[in-house]
C-alpha cells in the first residue's frame, strides 16, 4: 500500500471528489451530502487504488478540520471537551462560554461542540459506508478483505464513541438517501449498536495485519474490541484479546515522555496522524490547551483533584503530565501534547513554530492501556485479584513509572487510580469511571466540592437540538435535557 504520509498530501482533493459537500454542523443531509461536482462516489470508484483513497478519506475525517469555525467538523480535535472536561481531570481556564458548560455539567442541547462532534462521527461512518458500498470494484480478493476490515474498524470506533457519549443513536450501516429519514432519525437501542460494533471489529481482526500505526491494524482492532467487551462485561473475551495484543510485539517506552514525542513508537497501537505546518494535515488542540495561543484562552486545564492524584501516585509520569502556567501561577496546563513538543518558553505561549499548526499525533490506543485492560479483564468486575498474570501486567506499568515496589494484590480502586495517572488527559477518564461503576459517586463528590451541577443524567450528552428539529419530532431527547 502507499505510504500514509504521501497519500495524506493528496487526500483533501480526493475527498472533495468522493464526498463533495462534506457535512457541516447545520446540514440536514449529513449522511449523504448532495454533490456539487460531476464526480460522485458512484462514478469515482473503479479499482483498488481508488477505493484506497476512500479508505484514506476516512482518516481525513478522523483528523478533522484545523480551523476556528464550528461550521467545520473537528472530530477528534474536539473530543477532549466531551470526555476529559466532563470528568474530574480538566476544566476551562476562564469558566466562560460553551466550553464551560462541560465542566459545570450544564450542557445544553444547542451546544455547538456537542453538535459538531456528533456530526463528525457520522461523517466518519458515512465515509466508511461509501468504501464498503464499493468493494465490488476491487478485483484482488486479499485487498478487498483488507479494505473491508479497515473500513469496519473505523466505523466501529466511531459508533463506540457515539454510543458511550449519546446513548441510543441512529444506526446506519450502509449509504442511504437524504430522504431516508426513517433510518437517519431513528434512535436504536445501545445493544443493537454494540452488536454492530462487535461484528465490525471481529471482521477487522480477521482481515488486518500490524503494518500500520496511523491506520487500522489487527492489534488495534483486538485492543478496541477488548475495551468494548470490558464495557459489556464480557471479561473472558476481553482477556483473550488483551493477551493476543500482548503477544504481538508491542512494548512500553523506557521514558514516559517519549511516548508522546517519539511518535509512532513501539507503544503506539493506533493514533490519528498529523503533520505540522500544513493547515490541511495539522491540528490545533495542542494550542487550545496553552495560554492564549489557540482559539481560546486555555481549555482542558488541569484540576487540583488530578494534580493531587498525580503528585502522590504518578511517579515519573507526573513531571511529564502537567506544568504550572507561568503567566498565572494558580493554573496548570497539560504537557503531554505541547505543540510539536516545544515548551513554549517561560510565558507558556511563545513557540518556535505556529502552535495552531501542530503535528502531534493523537494517541487512541497504546500498550500501557492494554496492560491495564488485561488486569481489568482478569479482575472480572471483582474487588481485588492476586492472579499472577494480572500482577505482572500491573507491575510493568508501575515499573516504567519508577514505582518499583512489588505488587502483591490489585484492587479495583487501585486499578482505576492507576489508569487515571497513566492515561490522564488522553480522553479515557470519563469512560473508565462509567465502566468501573464509579462515575456517580466520584463525579457527585467532585461536583459538590467544586460547586458544580452534576446529576446522573449528565453521564450522557444531549442529542444535538439541530437533529431533534430536523427530525420533525421523530427523535427523542435524552433525559435531563
Question: How would you explain this protein's 3D organization?
Answer:
It contains 20 helices and 8 strands. The chain is mainly alpha-helical. The strands form 4 sheets. A two-stranded antiparallel sheet has the order 1-3. It has a two-stranded antiparallel sheet with strand order 2-6. Helix 6 runs antiparallel to helix 7, helix 11 packs antiparallel against helix 15 and helix 15 (367-379) runs antiparallel to helix 16. It is globular and about 55 Å long. It starts with a helix and ends in an 11-residue tail after the last helix.
**CATH top level label of one domain:** Mainly Alpha
Which fold name fills CATH's third level, the topology of one domain?
Serine Threonine Protein Phosphatase 5, Tetratricopeptide repeat
Q: Gyration radius, to the nearest Å? A: 21 Å
| Quaternary assembly | single chain
| Helix percentage | 40-55%
Kindly report the spatial arrangement of strands forming the biggest sheet: 1-3
Instruction: Give the low-pLDDT segments.
Output: 1-39
Mean pLDDT comes to: 91
Global structural class: mainly alpha
* Order of helix and strand elements from N to C terminus: HHHHEHHHHHHHHEHEHEEEHEHEHHHH
The helix count comes to: 20
User: Beta-strand percentage?
Assistant: under 5%
Measured between the Cα atoms of the first and last residue, the distance is 47 Å
Give me the count of strands. 8
Gross CATH architecture of one domain = Alpha Horseshoe
Report on the biggest sheet. Answer: 2 strands, antiparallel
The geometry reads as: globular
Amino acid at each position: 500500500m502507499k505510504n500514509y504520509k504521501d497519500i495524506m498530501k493528496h487526500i483533501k482533493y480526493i475527498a472533495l471528489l468522493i464526498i463533495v459537500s462534506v457535512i457541516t454542523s447545520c446540514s440536514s443531509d449529513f449522511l449523504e451530502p448532495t454533490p456539487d461536482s460531476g464526480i460522485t462516489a458512484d462514478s469515482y470508484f473503479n479499482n483498488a487504488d481508488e477505493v484506497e483513497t476512500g479508505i484514506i478519506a476516512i482518516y481525513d475525517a478522523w483528523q478533522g478540520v484545523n480551523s476556528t469555525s464550528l461550521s467545520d467538523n473537528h472530530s477528534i480535535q474536539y473530543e477532549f471537551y466531551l470526555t476529559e472536561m466532563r470528568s474530574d481531570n480538566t476544566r476551562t481556564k476562564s469558566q466562560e462560554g460553551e466550553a464551560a458548560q462541560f465542566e459545570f455539567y450544564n450542557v445544553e442541547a444547542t451546544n455547538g461542540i456537542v453538535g459538531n462532534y456528533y456530526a463528525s462521527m457520522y461523517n466518519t461512518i458515512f465515509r466508511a459506508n461509501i468504501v464498503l458500498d464499493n468493494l465490488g470494484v476491487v478485483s484482488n480478493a486479499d485487498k478487498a478483505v483488507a479494505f473491508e476490515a479497515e473500513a469496519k474498524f473505523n466505523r466501529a470506533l466511531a459508533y463506540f464513541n457515539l454510543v458511550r457519549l449519546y446513548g441510543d443513536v441512529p444506526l446506519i450501516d450502509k449509504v442511504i438517501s437524504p430522504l431516508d429519514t426513517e433510518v437517519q432519525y431513528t434512535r436504536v437501542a445501545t445493544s443493537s449498536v454494540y452488536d454492530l460494533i462487535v461484528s465490525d471489529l471481529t471482521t477487522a481482526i480477521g482481515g488486518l495485519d500490524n503494518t500500520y500505526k496511523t491506520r487500522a491494524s489487527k492489534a488495534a482492532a483486538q485492543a478496541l474490541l477488548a475495551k468494548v467487551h470490558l464495557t459489556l462485561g464480557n471479561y473472558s473475551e476481553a482477556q483473550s484479546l488483551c493477551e493476543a495484543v500482548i503477544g504481538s510485539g508491542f512494548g512500553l517506552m523506557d521514558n514516559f515522555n517519549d511516548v508522546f514525542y517519539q511518535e509512532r513508537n513501539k507503544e503506539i497501537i493506533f493514533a490519528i496522524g498529523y503533520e505540522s505546518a500544513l493547515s490541511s494535515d495539522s491540528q490545533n488542540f495542542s494550542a487550545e490547551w496553552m495560554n492564549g495561543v489557540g482559539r481560546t484562552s486555555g481549555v482542558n486545564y488541569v484540576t487540583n483533584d488530578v494534580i493531587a492524584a498525580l503528585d502522590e501516585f504518578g511517579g515519573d509520569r507526573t513531571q511529564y503530565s502537567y506544568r504550572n502556567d507561568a503567566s498565572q501561577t494558580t493554573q496548570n496546563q497539560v504537557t503531554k501534547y505541547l505543540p510539536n513538543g516545544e515548551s513554549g518558553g517561560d510565558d507558556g505561549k511563545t513557540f518556535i513554530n505556529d502552535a495552531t499548526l501542530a503535528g502531534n499525533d493523537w494517541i487512541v490506543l497504546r500498550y500501557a492501556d492494554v496492560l491495564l485492560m488485561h488486569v481489568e479483564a482478569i479482575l472480572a468486575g471483582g474487588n481485588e485479584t492476586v492472579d499472577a498474570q494480572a500482577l505482572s501486567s500491573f507491575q510493568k506499568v508501575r515499573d516504567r513509572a519508577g514505582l518499583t515496589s512489588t505488587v502483591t494484590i490489585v484492587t479495583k480502586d487501585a486499578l482505576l487510580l492507576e489508569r487515571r495517572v497513566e492515561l490522564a488527559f488522553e480522553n479515557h477518564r470519563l469512560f473508565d469511571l462509567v465502566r468501573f461503576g464509579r462515575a456517580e459517586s466520584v463525579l457527585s463528590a467532585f461536583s459538590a466540592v467544586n460547586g458544580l451541577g452534576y446529576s446522573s443524567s449528565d453521564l450522557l450528552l444531549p442529542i444535538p437540538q439541530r437533529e431533534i428539529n430536523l427530525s420533525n419530532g421523530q427523535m427523542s431527547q435524552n433525559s435531563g435535557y
